[in-house]
Amino acid sequence: MTVVGVDVGGTGIKAGLVDTDTGALVGERIRVLTPEGGAPEAVIAEIARVVGMLGADGPIGVGLPGPLSAGRLMMMANLDPSWIGLFAQEMIATATGREVILVNDADAAGLAEMRFGAGAGCHGVVLMLTLGTGIGSALFVDGHLVPNTEFGHIEVRGKDGEDRAAPSVRERKGLSWAAWVERLNEYIDHIDKLVWPDRIILGGGVSKNPEKFMPMVRARPPIVTATLQNNAGIVGSALRVAETLSSRSAPQP
Fold it and tell me: What is the pLDDT of residue 107?
């Protein structure tokens, strides 16, 4: 099965056609800038545009940066807060003319890594952290997703963890890699004491350059970088579609 996956972030909107049997992208990946301010109408228009550029039919999976309930975003940190409470699934479906299946963007990245990447075959507690404009999280117990965790917002030194340790903070404040990793290590230590993971996977945009920071990362559990790097959100969004369609066709007890 090939499915369109879309990954919406605070900085960029990425999309691609995914072979859900292998996790590989079929053809080119498209990336456009997230409209300044991240207002719903502008972002949804860009989603519709990139989906049209891919030219594939069928339902689409869309990863959005926030916890989801019944097709609505319940919180928003890196796009305009007017997203909160909107029936985003219906709005995107109307704009694209497709069936839309939404998933939290970090959960999508985690699904991809657990199926095809650094978490494949791992049991116990696995934590995926996506490091980009903010910090997203996806938690798995024996391969099963615990959806909508928002560990980027745990408090560290009186601030949201992502306000201290996201890669965007390093760029905005002009921190050296060493100074930023010191913040990242402190943040990971806080997370470790809450959920005691058996493995941590670091993904997001920063995973494209692991040599710049991974040698300085220190933590109790083993830490690895995401195999699918910044494509994990696209792949995971497409996987969510495949899983949903499969569950619909399965015989009911």
Answer: 97
